[in-house]
Amino acid sequence: DTGVSQNPRHKITKRGQNVTFRCDPISEHNRLYWYRQTLGQGPEFLTYFQNEAQLEKSRLLSDRFSAERPKGSFSTLEIQRTEQGDSAMYLCAIAPLYEQYFGPGTRLTVT
Amino acid sequence: AQSVTQLDSQVPVFEEAPVELRCNYSSSVSVYLFWYVQYPNQGLQLLLKYLSGSTLVKGINGFEAEFNKSQTSFHLRKPSVHISDTAEYFCAVTRIIQGAQKLVFGQGTRLTINP
Q1: Contact A56/B99, CB-based, under 8 Å?
Q2: Is B74 or B27 the better-scoring residue by pLDDT?
Q3: What is the dihedral of CA B59, A4, B110, A85, to 10 degrees?
Q4: Between chain A and chain B, how many beta carbons pairs sit less than 8 Å apart?
Q5: What is the pLDDT of residue A1?
Q6: What percent of chain B has pLDDT over 90?
Q7: What is the pLDDT of residue B34?
Q8: Helices H, strands E: what count in chain A?
């Protein structure tokens, strides 16, 4: 148990639909990260929260993507007007100190 | 910017044999180094980390890694592998700075253990 849950675990959606993923740390952690992992690749950084403030975003995060972390607890990642290229595993991680602990991920398939 | 190169995309090994998974990184600043393991359809599990101090670090499941600053390497080793070690292994690096310490990952090495 890494202390991070993600829901849903799997999501199949049609191109053009909006989807939202949720990340729930079991206990409060200041720092929370989102990564995207496509098939056969290592995860790539998407965005970072320090408490409720979104402090850094990757250029991978197009304007169709938005992330929030209200009250510095759980976080959501929304993708609007999904495209087939958005198909990937979306991973959330918390960082108590220098290392990061990942949740099980949400696998998105866009048909 | 940092980058990570995992020199082998696939490593097949017989059970109980030793294994080494190679990782080289590039960075203009000091870094922290990590190895993660990923089983099918799961998230990443931290195997071990190098932050400072002894260059030989031990992790879970009998794995260890050695940080070599001059060669900018952080190779992962296990003296005797088990079938259950079959998984994808990722090397990652992050800068030692305040704020967002985003991880930069290599492309992964698929370790396959054959009986």
Answers
A1: yes
A2: B74
A3: -150
A4: 66
A5: 60
A6: 80
A7: 97
A8: 0, 11
Range of B85's domain? 3-114
- How does pLDDT run across A10-36, given as a tens digit for each residue? 999 999 999 999 999 988 788 999 999
Question: Is the pLDDT at B98 greater than 80, yes or no?
Answer: no
Domain count, chain B: 1
Tokens linked to A26: 């079991």
How close is the nearest chain A Cα to the Cα of B58, in Å? 15
B36/A102 CB distance under 8 A: yes
Q: What is the pLDDT of residue B101?
A: 84
The radius of gyration of chain A from alpha carbons, rounded to an integer in Å, stands at 13
CATH number, residue B36: 2.60.40.10
d(CA A102, CA A25): 10
Q: Which residues of chain A lie closer than 8 angstroms to B36, CB-CB?
A: 102
The two tokens of residue B25 are: 């990184």
Closest-CA residue of B relative to A104 is: B43
Closest Cβ–Cβ partner in A31, A42, A93 for B106 = A42
Q: Which of B60, B73, B107, B115 shows the shortest CA–CA distance to A99?
A: B60
Over residues A68-97, mean pLDDT: 94
Whether the predicted pLDDT of A2 surpasses 70 = no
| Rounded Cα–Cα distance for residues B58 and B92 (Å) | 16
Contact A99 B36 (CB under 8 A): no
